[in-house]
Design goal:
This protein has about 300 residues and is an alpha/beta fold. It has helices at about 30, 50-65, 90-100, 105-135, 170-175, 175-190, 190-210, 240, 255-265, 280-310; strands at about 15-20, 35, 45, 70, 135-140, 160-165, 225, 230-235, 245-250, 270-275, 275-280. It is built from ten helices and eleven strands. A hairpin with a 2-residue loop joins strand 10 and strand 11. The longest helix is centred in the middle third of the chain and has 29 residues, at about 105-135.
């Protein structure tokens, strides 16, 4: 990144940023399983893949104005991978047999579906990021959801926020050859400390913007990394195979009543009263929290560089 004065209006000049809008929308939501409907018959269906794309496009506009080169892993509600559930049937069957499971038609179908949405799609985005975009930083955008009992969506509390770093590998994950290989590659790239510094800064500006409390793991599926209760380590495919610093966001529980109500409001301009408080629309609020953190972090880094040069 070039040296800029601390008060520059383009504090992200020279930075290449990849934005990965998590999941998929449109007709593909039934393969992705990140959609649900709550409320009355006139309520909008909540579709995470479409929501993350809205945030991504706001971020691209705003970060570009601040000097960054910004690239999206997807521009539409369409998969990046060329694989489909139908093309993954044999691979799913072989995987089940290798694990000692009986490959029934239903199990093959559900496994192929998971391979499409979780593995093939994310790995295709990883190839795009690693081989074509080659960014300085990747932003993985998601919305969270609280588990619901019995498989039927219900409203749950509380609403919360957290960011995820790569780490906290389980024993079963370490038995997988590709996982061990990718873990070693991540270690050799020495990305962790920059990811942690970035996550530490951006998590705080995002919390200030969204007013969300921190989410906490139990120490098994996710582990604390420092004294910031907004940042956790967890082994996710995206933050393992994207070969650059990754900020992985999980704000807002989609099945929390306030978040659900804000989804129904859509991307309105200006401010509206939400539970007695005037708020930006959900997507702008998310984007503004991320943008503020990136500006703060890179301004601080440049200031340190300038101060060091004058010592």
């Amino acid at each position: 990144m070039p040296d800029l004065p601390p008060n520059s209006t383009r504090p992200l000049e020279g930075l290449r940023i990849a934005i990965d809008p998590g999941h998929i929308g449109g007709k593909w939501v039934t393969w992705d399983d990140r959609h649900f409907k709550l409320g009355g018959p006139d309520s909008l269906e909540v579709r995470e893949g479409e929501m993350t794309l809205m945030v991504a496009k706001i971020l691209r506009r705003d970060l570009t104005l601040l000097g960054a080169e910004v690239f999206l892993t997807r521009e539409t509600n369409h998969p990046v991978t060329k694989e489909r559930v139908e093309t993954l049937q044999e691979e799913a069957k072989a995987y089940l047999i290798k694990r000692g499971q009986v490959p029934s038609a239903g199990l093959i179908a559900s496994t192929a579906k998971a391979m499409f949405a979780i593995s093939a799609e994310i790995r295709a985005r990883g190839e795009l990021i690693n081989n074509t975009i080659r960014p300085d930083l990747a932003l993985c955008l998601h919305f969270d959801a609280s588990p619901w009992p019995g498989g039927r969506p219900v409203f749950r509390s509380p609403n919360h926020l957290h960011l995820i770093l790569n780490g906290c590998y389980s024993e079963s994950e370490m038995e997988e050859d590709d996982t061990r290989f990718e873990m070693v590659l991540r270690i050799l790239q020495r990305l962790y400390h920059e990811e942690l510094r970035l996550s530490d800064t951006v998590s705080k500006t995002l919390q200030h913007e969204t007013r969300l409390p921190a989410f906490g793991y139990d120490g098994t599926s996710g582990m604390s990394v420092n004294d910031n209760d907004l940042v956790w380590a967890r082994n996710l495919l995206a933050n393992r195979v994207f070969f650059c610093p990754v900020l992985f966001f999980e704000p807002f529980c989609m099945n929390h009543q306030e978040t659900h109500a804000r989804v129904q409001e859509g991307p309105y301009p200006g401010l509206r009263e939400i539970n007695g408080v005037y708020r930006k629309n959900l997507y702008q609020e998310y984007a503004d929290g991320v943008t503020a953190g990136l500006v703060r972090y890179y301004r601080e880094q440049r200031q340190k560089k300038v101060s060091s040069a004058h010592e």
